[in-house]
Amino acid sequence: MTSTSSPLLFDRALLRRRHARAAGDFAAHDFLFRLMAERLRDRLDDMTRHFPLALALDRGGAAAHVLAAHRGIGRLIESGVHAVLDEEVLPFRASCFDAVFSCGTLHWVNDIPGALAQIRRCLKPDGLFLSVFPGGDSLKELRDALLQASLAEEGGVSPRVSPFVDVRDAGALLQRAGFALPVVDSETLTVRYGDAFALMRDLRGMGETNALLQRPKRFTRRATMQAADAQYRARYQGEDGRIPATFELITLTAWQPHESQPQPLRRGSGEIALGQVLR
Which of 246 and 212 is assigned the larger pLDDT? Predict the structure, then answer.
């Protein structure tokens, strides 16, 4: 369950309702999830290991679609198909999976260290954890445009775009959860839209709109939304008349600890003094 020491940022009940509402037309807007699933497959392609039983924490089957038939996976348990899962409360016994894949789910978790610890617990020794999710720079242009529009039209600001994990913090989160051999990578994807409303339609179609507990509880005024579109154009519009939307994708690779894994050298065990190297 969510740690009492972790602040509750997201309305998880609202998030589930939005995901359910978006499910019917998800395939028309799921480009980001398909791309994240492809990144999972690319990382798995680089490995020679076989994972007899794996779990996919997924949205709309994007990851399961590309992983289910992968040569490195035996049987894949899909969230939402074989089991209805809450990433914050995983119902699995300890050491039951050879691999756990997470595709676009971690950025909505209130207690990320707690969720990572649960994932690690259900991995067998030397089991793989592989995750891709939107990171800190995602939607920075939309965040800025909404901020400026709220100041101009409403005289104040409210959180309208959810926060994302910064890539610099991701490795620390893996270590805090007890994973071994953590690797964190980041890439930036830029998608171009005709206007801010087209971007927001995609976000709504993915079920990825603001689910902060401290979000404004009333509908955003039309004037504010029109001002946000105008601010977006004024600050970011390209020569082609279109506006960019940044998505930063963070990839996490880590392992359940095992004695066979490479271990760091004991402090003071080096045979060459640092001074000799630097001279």
Answer: 246
Tell me which of 1.10.10.10, 3.40.50.150, 3.40.50.2300, 3.40.50.720 is the CATH number of domain 12-258: 3.40.50.150
pLDDT of residue 2: 47
Q: The tokens of 123 are what?
A: 């991995």
Domains in the chain: boundaries: 12-258
**Dist CA 248 CA 138 (whole Å):** 5
Specify the pTM.
Answer: 0.87
Find how far residue 113's CA is from the centre of its chain.
14
Residues 186 and 175: their CA atoms lie apart, in Å, by 18
**Phi-psi domain of 241 (left: phi exceeds 0; alpha: psi -120 through 50; beta: other):** left
pLDDT at residue number 257: 95
Does residue 118 contact residue 220 with C-beta atoms inside 8 Å?
no
